[in-house]
Amino acid sequence: QLLCEDVNVERFFPVLYPKASQLIVAFDEHVISNNFKFGVIYQKPGQTTEEEVFSNTEESLGFLEFLDFLGDKIQLQDFRGFRGGLDVTRGQTGTESVYTNFRGKEIMFHVSTKLPFTEGDSQQLQRKRHIGNDIVAIIFQDESTPFVPDMIASNFLHAYVVVQLTHGTTGDTLYKVN
């Protein structure tokens, strides 16, 4: 009745079918995805606009170390794993990316600094086209910098994970996650 007021149900009867649980599991397996794509954006200290973060072409040592933590740097040309919408034949989405296979799940990271940079394009539409269509974006910061989700205009991005580089008392690399 919650879904359709015209339906009048007074009672339910159990359906006795020995293979029902197997059918439900089989159906459930069909809707589970083993492939994921996440955006990764490098936000330098003091950057507060979409244009600034999508225009970064250099990567700090801390950012490179974080990318290495996320997965393997791969060459896109002729890559055989899950490509996450990246071009693996003509090089139109750059030459390299970051990829991992975690517990049987393939993950391709759309790294802002590894997607093509277009001189004169303040919006960097080539970069934004991929990251803006992801559901999750990881924002990496070398140091504390304000990040507001509204900074990036997107109809698809729903979750932002802000990762900030920090160091422990012994000098170890640590990450603060917000």
UniProtKB/TrEMBL annotation:
<dbReference type="GO" id="GO:0051056">
    <property type="term" value="P:regulation of small GTPase mediated signal transduction"/>
</dbReference>
<dbReference type="GO" id="GO:0005096">
    <property type="term" value="F:GTPase activator activity"/>
</dbReference>
<dbReference type="Pfam" id="PF02145">
    <property type="entry name" value="Rap_GAP"/>
</dbReference>
<keyword id="KW-0343">GTPase activation</keyword>
<dbReference type="InterPro" id="IPR000331">
    <property type="entry name" value="Rap/Ran_GAP_dom"/>
</dbReference>
<dbReference type="Pfam" id="PF21022">
    <property type="entry name" value="Rap-GAP_dimer"/>
</dbReference>
<dbReference type="GO" id="GO:0005737">
    <property type="term" value="C:cytoplasm"/>
</dbReference>
<protein>
    <submittedName>
        <fullName>RPGP1 protein</fullName>
    </submittedName>
</protein>
<feature type="domain" description="Rap-GAP">
    <location>
        <begin position="24"/>
        <end position="178"/>
    </location>
</feature>
<dbReference type="InterPro" id="IPR050989">
    <property type="entry name" value="Rap1_Ran_GAP"/>
</dbReference>
<dbReference type="InterPro" id="IPR035974">
    <property type="entry name" value="Rap/Ran-GAP_sf"/>
</dbReference>
